[in-house]
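Input (HAD superfamily hydrolase):
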Amino acid sequence: MKYKLVCVDMDGTLLDSSKNIKRRNIEVIRKADKMGVKVVLTTGRGYPFAKKFRDKMGISTPIIASNGAYIIDGHEVMMKNIIPIETANTILDVMKRHKVKTFIHTTEEIIYRKKDIGKFLAKKFFGDSVKEIDSFEIGMKDNKDNLLKFVGISISSKKIDKVKKVLRKIDNVEVVSSTKFNCEIMIKGSSKGEAVRMMAEKYNIKQEEVMCIGDNENDLSMLQYAGCAVAMGNGSREVKEIADYVTASNNNCGVAQAIEKFILMDGN
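Output:
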């Protein structure tokens, strides 16, 4: 079997523009799963959001969530890379100074302030696992053992670029984006690439037996690790530049096309 592990991003990749999984993608993933290929959702989203879609597909493989800061395999927590409260306060200070809307991933939910976004929009963007709070300082203190990721959002991509430059001066964090209008901050050592490496190592899968599919900056590390790097047709220029193959867009079942080409039709 040429590829034994397929790590798939969600937004802009597996999910279409309406945030749904097309039937063809589900059917193809199920076929690969039945062949013994591990198809792992590898996302910047929180674990509850990813689990909902994995269960919808009817597979039971591991989930890499919060850009690799949280990895769940069955009942085993393979990785829980927590942001220390001191670092969290530093990140929050940067967000406040630059006036970007802020959301914080914990292991079980996403916390947000009502003044930043209403509950309806919070659920629309992040799913059902959201919690409204009055103060981030109190919310962080209550979740100090479960802080996984900060997300900053702005309608100005220039502001996001400026914020990312400031955040990257903090020694112990990783800073990436999944769109030009956000920045995502995890503790150093948290990345999709490192998470995929850990997953492959656990199951004795060689690097050349790994295929990764993604569309944006936060996917670069796993695409660079992969034996076969697949960029979505709707992906960013920098993702396409390092890809071995550019598949169809997320609205045209690019994930299914790639799995069919490299796994189902390739004699695996």
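DSSP finds ten helices and 14 strands in the chain.
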